[in-house]
Design a protein that fits this description.
This protein has helices spanning 9-17, 23-41, 49-64, 107-114, 157-164, 181-187, 225-235, 276-291, 306-321, 327-337, 347-355, 359-382, 423-429, 460-473; strands at residues 44-47, 76-80, 118-123, 135-136, 140-141, 171-175, 190-193, 217-222, 262-265, 295-297, 385-389, 408-411, 414-417, 435-442, 448-454. By secondary structure, the chain is an alpha+beta fold. It is globular. It starts with 8 loop residues before the first helix and ends in an 11-residue tail after the last helix.
C-alpha cells in the first residue's frame, strides 16, 4: 500500500471517515512535506495556512458530530493558480496582475469546498496558461519530480507536480491545449479533460471575464481514477444562470470489464510524430486490452483529415485566446500578416492569422469544426473509445529561450517544433470531446508516460471507467523515488 501522502483523495477521505487520521493531522503531514520538498519543485506558489488550519479543525469537529461535509471531507487540496480563491492571488503568471486578489471564489472552488476539501494553496502556471512548461516572472520555474531538469508540463504543471510528489491530496486544472492532459502524462498522475461546457468555469478567468472561452474547460487531477470520478461529480453541472432550464446527467458506463470494450488505438500521426518510447507504452496498453479479450483496432479512425483538424484547431485556438491581446499587440499582428506568404502554413503564420481573424472566417472554421463533430459522432457509434498519446514525447528539458513557437523538442532523433504536438490536444478537444489521461508505464530512462483515453461527447464517465480498470489491472500511480 502507498504511504499516506501518496494515497488517493478518495482513500484519504476514507481514512478520515474511519477515524484513522484526523483532518488537522493530515493537513500538517502535507504542510511538512511542502516545507521539505517544495523549495526543490516550486510547485506550490501561494498558501493560506492560517485559514486551512482553521478549516481542518472545523472539519474534525464536524466529523465528531457525525456531520461530514461531503465526499472529500477533510482532504487537503491545492488548486491551479488561475482559479479565484479569496485571500490568494490570481495572476495567470502575468506580472501586471501580481497584486490581484479576487473578491470571491471561483464557482468550482465553492463546489469543492462544499464537498469538504481543506484548500491550503495554489500551484504554478505559465504566463497566460500558454505553455507546455510552467514558469513565469512572478513565481519562477516548476520542476518535474521525476527529473528536476525537465518540465512538469503546462499549464497545470504545478498541479501535476504537487500531486506526483505527495505535496497535496487533490487538484484541479484547466485545458484548452492539453493543459490537464500533458502534465498528467509528464508527471505520472491521472487527469480528466471534461466534455466542453459541462463544468462551469466562472471564476477561472482573467479579471473581469465572465463568458466561457471556446474549447477551454476545467477539470480534476488526482492520483487515481476514482478521484477524477469524484472530482467531476462535484465540479460538473449547470451554473446558477442555467439551472432553470436543464440539469446534467452523464450516462454510466455500459461496460463492466475490459473485455466489454471496443477500442481504436492510434500510436502516432504524420501531423505530430510520436517518440517511439511513448508509442511503445500506448501499444503495451493496447496489447494488454487485447489479452483481456477487448476488441482492439489499430486502423479504425474517425473520418477526419488530420491535417485539416490541426489547421482548424490552431485557427480556433488562437482566435479563442486573441481577446487578451493589447491594442498594440493586435496592431503588430496586423503588420506581421503583411509579411506572410499565402502558402506559409507554419504555426507562427497560422497563429498570426487567427489572432486577427474576421468573424466571417471564424464562422467558416467553426462550420468545419462542426462537420468534424458529426464524423466523430459516427465513429463512436461503432467504437467505445479511442486511445492515443497525450503528447509527442515524455517530459522534455526546461527550455525558456525565445518564443514558444520557436522552440523544439527531440522526437526519434530529430528536432521538431514543440507546437506540432498540439495536434494531440486539438484532434479531440476542438470538437468538445472528453478524455482521461492515465499512467501507462515508463520510458527506459524512468520518465512517466500516460495514455489518453478519448470518448464520445458526454461519455466522460466511460473514459474515467477505462482509466479505473487500467489502474486496477495494468498500471497504477507510482510515486517518484526522490520524494519519499
Amino acid at each position: 500500500m502507498l504511504d499516506t501522502p501518496f494515497q488517493s483523495a478518495s482513500a484519504l477521505a476514507s481514512l478520515i471517515r474511519r477515524k484513522k487520521i484526523g483532518c488537522a493531522e493530515l493537513l500538517e503531514l502535507y504542510l511538512a512535506r511542502v516545507e521539505k520538498y517544495n523549495p526543490t519543485l516550486n510547485a506550490i506558489i501561494a498558501t493560506d495556512l492560517e485559514g486551512a488550519r482553521k478549516r481542518a479543525r472545523a472539519a474534525d469537529r464536524a466529523l465528531a458530530r457525525k456531520k461530514p461535509w461531503g465526499p472529500l471531507h477533510g482532504v487537503p487540496m491545492t488548486i491551479k493558480e488561475s482559479y479565484d480563491v479569496v485571500g490568494m492571488p490570481t495572476t495567470w503568471g502575468v506580472p501586471e496582475l501580481k497584486d490581484h486578489v479576487p473578491p470571491r471564489n471561483a464557482l468550482a472552488v465553492d463546489r469543492l469546498l462544499g464537498a469538504g476539501v481543506v484548500l491550503f494553496g495554489k500551484t504554478n502556471v505559465p504566463i497566460y496558461l500558454a505553455d507546455y512548461q510552467s514558469y513565469n516572472a512572478i513565481y519562477g520555474t516548476t520542476n518535474n519530480p521525476w527529473d528536476l531538469s525537465r518540465a512538469p508540463g503546462g499549464s497545470s504543471g504545478g498541479s501535476a507536480a504537487a500531486l506526483a510528489a505527495g505535496l497535496t491530496g487533490f487538484e484541479a486544472g484547466s485545458d484548452i491545449g492539453s493543459s490537464i492532459r500533458n502534465p498528467a502524462h509528464y508527471c505520472g498522475v491521472f487527469g480528466h479533460k471534461p466534455t466542453w461546457g459541462i463544468v462551469p468555469p466562472r471564476g477561472q478567468a482573467l479579471p473581469g471575464r465572465v463568458s466561457q472561452a471556446d474549447i477551454s474547460v476545467i477539470g480534476p487531477l488526482g492520483r487515481s481514477a476514482e478521484d477524477l470520478e469524484i472530482g467531476l461529480g462535484v465540479m460538473a453541472g449547470p451554473d446558477e444562470i442555467d439551472t432553470a432550464g436543464y440539469k446534467l446527467t452523464l450516462a454510466k458506463p455500459r461496460q463492466k470489464a475490459l473485455r466489454d470494450f471496443k477500442v481504436a488505438v492510434m500510436l502516432t500521426d504524420p501531423v505530430s510524430e510520436v517518440d517511439l518510447e511513448v508509442q511503445a507504452r500506448v501499444q503495451a496498453v493496447a496489447e494488454f486490452l487485447a489479452s483481456k479479450r477487448a476488441k482492439v483496432s489499430d486502423r479504425a479512425r474517425p473520418d477526419v483529415d488530420a491535417w485539416e483538424a490541426q489547421r482548424v484547431y490552431i485557427q480556433l485556438l488562437r482566435a479563442a485566446t486573441s481577446g487578451r491581446l493589447t491594442p498594440e499587440e493586435f496592431e503588430k499582428n496586423l503588420e506581421a500578416i503583411k509579411t506572410l506568404e499565402p502558402q506559409d502554413e507554419s504555426y507562427y503564420a497560422r497563429m498570426v492569422r487567427a489572432n486577427i481573424i474576421s468573424h466571417r472566417d471564424w464562422l467558416a472554421a467553426n462550420e468545419r469544426r462542426h462537420k468534424m463533430r458529426w464524423k466523430w459522432h459516427e465513429f463512436f457509434k461503432e467504437y467505445d473509445l479511442l486511445l492515443c498519446p497525450a503528447a509527442a514525447s515524455a517530459a522534455f528539458p526546461h527550455d525558456q529561450q525565445g518564443e514558444r513557437h520557436e522552440r523544439t523538442i527531440e522526437i526519434n532523433g530529430r528536432r521538431v517544433p514543440t507546437t506540432d504536438q498540439l495536434f494531440w490536444a486539438g484532434y479531440s478537444g476542438m470538437v468538445y470531446l472528453p478524455s482521461t489521461v492515465a499512467p501507462a508505464g515508463f520510458t527506459k530512462s524512468g520518465l512517466p508516460v500516460g495514455v489518453q483515453i478519448v470518448g464520445p461527447q458526454y461519455g466522460d464517465r466511460t473514459c474515467i471507467h477505462m482509466a479505473r480498470l487500467l489502474e486496477r489491472e495494468f498500471q497504477a500511480f507510482v510515486p517518484p523515488p526522490d520524494f519519499p
